[in-house]
Amino acid sequence: MVSGDASFRRYYRLTSTTPALILMDAPPSHEDVAKFVRLDLAFAAAGLPVPQIVAQDLEHGFLALEDLGDQMLSQRLDDHATRWYQAALAMLPAVRKVHQHTDLPRFDAAFIQRELGIFTEWFVGKYLGRVLNSAEQQLLNDTFHIIEHNLLQQPIAGMHRDFHSRNLMVLADDSLVAIDFQDAVQGPVCYDAVSLLRDCYVRWPDAQVLEWARHFYQQLQAEGFYAAGFTAFQRDFDFVGLQRHIKVLGIFCRLNFRDGKAGYMADLPRVYGYVVDVAQQYAELQPFARWLESLVPPAWQEQRQ
Fold first, then answer.
1. Within 6-132, where are the H helices?
2. Domain with CATH 3.90.1200.10 in the chain
3. CATH number of the structural domain 71-304
């Protein structure tokens, strides 16, 4: 097996073919292979480099894909990081156009709240073992609606929805190819840039992220996608990242407790750090930050004893 990921898909390298191919085994009971094919073709039509599909057996959940090698962008980030991130951000105009080539779900209020509910169930309930009292439940409801309100007023575009350093493959010529795009939706135009620059698997100094975010903002302005000033953009960037990272706290715990994939728990402190750092910057989110800080560090201290 070449690798697995957070899904039920498994990948195998077929070396008996010339060139080598990757066999994707995606059990139809858990994975929608037809959707993967549809989105692969749509992203390619939009101009995003994605794996070429060589053969398919949709009934049994098998695809033969071009072999992109083994090197993820995450393995090259010590080598001219700014150049790599600018190359990755340059892929996003194509992502923003994907909805012109296929129908995509909307990242709407119900979608946002459903994702945030994963945090409540799996991070708060299962991981922290906490049953919320009425005041805590109201705090989460208020916080989640503040986040939802911000996200719904942002400019909308096609979204990869998991655009980060482990989902960008580096080819022999140093070009990048996007993978793991099957959860694409239409949603906030900042989302994929936040996913990349505030990566759940690597954290950069805030000043560096700000520089890269400004580059992305200028890209959006050049496309006519974002008319507001940089301060408004930065707020939108922060709120989108906050929603994503709150969800990811729940996702990583669900992968651990439900699916037996414990490796993601090592990344929990980094994601928690993103959540608290952003929430502390905005008065309306500070009660949520204080609540988290009253629960999480003591729980981790107790686990270490």
1. 33-46, 81-89, 92-96, 109-118
2. 71-304
3. 3.90.1200.10
Q: What is the second-level CATH architecture of the domain 1-70? A: 2-Layer Sandwich (3.30)
Task: Read off the tokens for 305.
Answer: 């004893």
Edge-to-edge order in the sheet of strand 21-25:
3-4, 10-14, 21-25, 62-66, 53-57
β-bridge partners, 23? 12, 64
Question: Closest Cα to residue 59, out of 27, 30, 37?
Answer: 27
Q: Which residue has the tokens 């989460």?
A: 140
pLDDT digit string, tens, across residues 242-276 = 999 999 999 999 999 999 999 999 999 999 999 99
For tokens 């135009």, the residue is 189
Report yes or no: 174 and 250 within 8 Å, Cβ to Cβ.
no
The pTM for the full model equals: 0.94
Q: Do 111 and 278 meet the contact criterion of CB atoms below 8 Å apart?
A: no
CB-count exposure of residue 281 (10 Å: 0-12, 13-18, 19+): middle
CATH 3.30.200.20 domain span(s) along the chain = 1-70
